[in-house]
Amino acid sequence: MPINKEVVKLKSINLSKDMDIAIYGHFGTIILLFPATRDSIDENEEMGLIDSIGQYIRSGRIKVYSVSSVNFESWLNYEIEPAQRSKRHFEYDRFLIEEVVRLIYEDCGGAVPILTCGCAIGAFHACNSYLKRPDLFLGTIAMSGTFNIQHFSGDYFDENCYFNSPIHYLPNLTDNYWLSFLQSRHHLHLLSGSGENEYPENSIHLSEILTAKNIPHNLEIWGPKFGHDYNTWNQMLPTIIGRIL
C-alpha cells in the first residue's frame, strides 16, 4: 500500500522565496522532519527514511511534514560573509516558527503536538527548534547531530549564533517559564552511532548539560557498526517511534 504524499508550496515572507513541504499521511502525531545533507524535501524519501516508518504513517499513528532547508544559503555557503550566513539562519528560524507551524496548525484544523526530527545537520535544526520553543514543540528525535553551532560558523560567533547553539545557551537558561516546559516533557531523544564518521561525544555533551538542568531525555549510543549514514538512521527512527508511540 503506497504512502499518501502531498507537496505544498509555502510562499515564505521571512525567506523571500517559495519553500516546499512534503506531507506524508493523514492522521497521527505530527513529525516535523528536516533533511540531513541536502536542502531538499525529497532526500529523506529517496534515502529510505520515509519507508522505514511507513507502517506508522499508513496506520495513522504519525503524519510527517518534511520541510526543505536553506543550509546552502546559510552556514554551508562559504561564498558569503559569516554575518550573512548567520542572518540567513535567523530568517530560517523565523520561517519555521512563524510560517511552518502555522501551516501545520491550519492543515490539522488547530494546534497539535509536534515532534521535531532530523539526522546530521537536520538533527541540529530539530533539537535547537525544540529547545528554544518547547511551548510549540512536544519533543525531538535528533540522530547523529552536533549541537554546537561553531561546528558550522567556525570562529564567527555573534548573538544569533549564541541563541542557536544549545551547548552555549542551555547552561545559562534560568528562566523558570522555559525550564518548566523542558523539565515536564518526556520526548527528547538523542541518538548516535559510534561507527565511521560518527561523533557520539556531541550527543553525550548535550546529554550532560540536560542532566545538569534536570531535563528528562533519552540518550542512546549505538555500536561501532552504526556509521554516519542512512543505513543507521533508517534503523534508529522506526525503533524510537515504535517505542514512544
Per DSSP E runs of 2 or more residues, the count of β-strands stands at: 8
Sheet with most strands = 8 strands, mixed
Head-to-tail CA distance between termini = 21 Å
Order of helices and strands: EEEHHHEHEHEHHHHEHEH
Average of pLDDT: 97
Contiguous runs where pLDDT drops below 50 for at least 5 residues: none
Give the fraction of residues assigned to helices: 40-55%
The CATH topology: Rossmann fold
Output the radius of gyration. 17 Å
The H-level CATH homologous superfamily, spelled out, is Alpha/Beta hydrolase fold, catalytic domain
**What's the overall geometry?**
globular
Give me the number of helical elements. Answer: 11
The total number of structural domains is 1
CATH hierarchy, class = Alpha Beta
Please give the CATH architecture.
3-Layer(aba) Sandwich
What is the SS-derived class? alpha/beta
Main β-sheet, spatial strand arrangement = 1-2-4-3-5-6-7-8
Approximately what portion of the residues adopt beta-strand conformation?
15-25%
Protein architecture, described:
The chain is an alpha/beta fold and 245 residues long. It has one domain (5-244): Alpha/Beta hydrolase fold, catalytic domain (Rossmann fold, 3-Layer(aba) Sandwich). The protein is built from eleven helices and eight strands. It has helices at residues 43-46, 49-52, 54-58, 82-108, 121-132, 150-153, 159-162, 166-169, 176-184, 200-212, 230-244, and strands at 5-12, 17-24, 29-33, 62-67, 114-119, 139-143, 188-192, 218-221. It has an eight-stranded mixed beta sheet, with helices on both faces. Strand 7 (188-192), helix 10 and strand 8 (218-221) form a beta-alpha-beta unit. The chain is globular. The model has no long low-confidence stretch (mean pLDDT 97).
